[in-house]
Amino acid sequence: MRDSRILSTFQDLTTATGALPLSQMPEHRRAEELIFDTCQVGVVLRAVMFVQAVAWVAALYGAQGWWGWMTQVALYTAATLPAVLIWLLVVCALKRQLARLPKPAQWTSGILLGAASAVYGCGLLAWTGLVDPAPWLASAASGALVAAVLVAALVWRARARAPAGTTARLAELQARIRPHFLFNTLNSAIALVRAEPAKAEALLEDLSELFRHALADAQEAVPLRQELELAEHYLAIEQIRFGDRLRLEWSLDEKASGALLPPLILQPLVENAVKHGVEPSPTGATVRISTKRRGSTAIIKVTNTVPSGSGSRGHGLALDNVRQRLTLLHDVEGRFQSALVDGVFQVRLEIPI
Hints:
353 residues, alpha+beta, two-stranded antiparallel sheet, 13% strand, elongated
């Protein structure tokens, strides 16, 4: 009975690593997708700075001396700052509605909203009597042009996430099926089948979950709890391999589990801790994973002791990938730090909740 359950688990593993038949694949999946997103602090700051820079340069035309340029800058700022803030807020507020539109319609909507926002800014100047007559057409054209540039920049930024996510998934899949990891895992399962069948079954189930996550449909973000579950499956496999050499410590705050992370971002950090902390040391190492909510921020730490020194230095590709993907998802609101201090290597992530 036990052997049949192990066989069933192994079949689940092979199914997870195989491709779906064409008949089971959806013919067309078009989830709601906003090609540009203004609901982030970093986006707001950069958009405001860009429009202000345009205003400063535009004020140089026709300015008579330093004081004349300052006067023109103040005038343009009075029109452009409210306009760009209105554009950012309206696009953010209409995020879900815009996501339902085709991409060309999203572009058009963003540009038309830019023209309307610029007209609003011009209206403020006309209402206060700072300009007479009011340049309505020029304002609308300028707003549309600036909005087109901002939309293009945000679309480019959104597209930059896809290669990073795809690269990470491929890297994770390659890591999971690399020969020595896979063979060691299967050999461990074979050795346990007769002596400890329950452990063998659990080992194959953990391996199956790793493959399922690696081959799952790509998502922009997943909750922290899902990343922690994946790390648990990986560490359960490595625990059988290293035994007492791998000492695990968990300190998890349930209040932080809802924070959103790029998929497959925590597991590479855990794997690095095992590879550079446990594997090169005959006495092993302690790997500690902790999460904590502090206000509106989730703090995630992955640390490992390095009792035999720093060991062989890696290329830092995994850390760079994590840093870049975190920046793409959370911009300036996400933080990534890593350091080796007193024989302990620590990676710290700060994620907005």
